[in-house]
Amino acid sequence: MGEWSFALAYLAAGLGAGLVTLGAAVGIGRIAGQAMDGTARQPEAGGDIRTTMIIAAAMIEGVALFGAVICFLLAGIK
Amino acid sequence: MISETTAAAADSLAEHEETIGVWIQHHLQNSPEWHPFPGVHIHLPHFSSFNFLGMNIDLSITNHVVMLWFASFILLTMFWLSFRRIKKVPTGFANALESLVIFIRDDIAIANMGEKEGKRFTPYLVTAFFFVLISNMMGLIPIFTTSTGNINVTLGLAAVTFFSTQYFGVKEQGLIGYYKNLVPHGVPLLLWPLMFVIELMGLIAKHVALTIRLFANMTAGHIVLFAFLGLIIMFKSFYVAPVSIGFGIFVYFLEMLVALIQAYIFTVLSSLFIGMSVNPEH
């Protein structure tokens, strides 16, 4: 287990980074899709919808980057 | 001859450090010297750490500290030069700055905090927005590095927001009233202690999220950019360069957009938190 622990940590960092990206992409993709639906229904609300979409996308990206920070920490183990 | 130079550069890299990962980290970390141009190394003064309340505090000047000074200097100079002569209708650069300040006052501060409180907190929000924006943009210029890529800097900025929420919340609602109002109305008495603990943790978690969001966005963007440029060194060949630089330019423009958006998000969330603590919703 001694030699394997670093290998497993690096593997976990890589897998974790992929999963985090997957989660963020699914979340932000859904938001952008609904935003486009909403703008298509009511073009006058386009500005408000765009602002809310950007705020929500930045929140989701923030949560995804929590996971990414943990992957950085795992990948930096010596 | 060119491929020999590239191979020589890559080998010298392999002598000093081990991997591309270390090369990337070296460029992003806080370091006691600043090298603005390829040959110029400026060693910054190092003060020995002193003991304060059991913590070792190290106040030596590093390159992120120098970047903080530059950002404040640029911010102050920008506003001072634009508004030296106050006219009724500003022109030029002052016009752009004033439209941004009005945007922050109307669409961020007053929309989230109400009329009276919005005008009161606009100076802090404008400062936060411009400081984060300038610091983020400075990381994209070759001479400077991103000071907001250091978690201590973003923790400091989020701590200002945190202490403002606590201080102004207590001032507005009284010490007991503020903490009692954390838990929403209409929660049965049995659940109240649990909800109180959850709300307290939520308070800390929201501000920690503010810290990590800004830090991780800046650092991750720069890591991607350096990784693309590091491909040239890793393959030790000149032919990777067009692909690498092409992707690098794309990521660079994405970074500019992310810098703007992150400054905006920091300001919006700060105004939301301060607004929630000063006007509790019923």
Structure description:
The complex is a heterodimer of chains A (78) and B (282). Chain A is rod-shaped. Chain A has a single domain, classed as F1F0 ATP synthase subunit C (F1FO ATP Synthase, Up-down Bundle). The longest helix of chain A is centred in the first third of the chain and has 38 residues. Helix content of chain A is 87%, strand content 0%. Chain A has 2 helices and no strands. Chain A is mainly alpha-helical and 78 residues long. Chain B is mostly helical and 282 residues long. Helices cover 71% and strands 4% of the residues of chain B. Chain B is built from 9 helices and 4 strands; from the N terminus they run H-H-E-E-E-E-H-H-H-H-H-H-H. At the A-B interface, helix 2 of A face helix 8 and helix 9 of B.
Brief summary:
The complex is a heterodimer of chains A (78) and B (282). With 78 residues, chain A is mainly α.
Number of distinct helices of chain A: 2
Report the count of strand segments of chain A. 0
- Second rung of CATH, namely the architecture of chain A: Up-down Bundle
Q: Report the count of strand segments of chain B.
A: 4
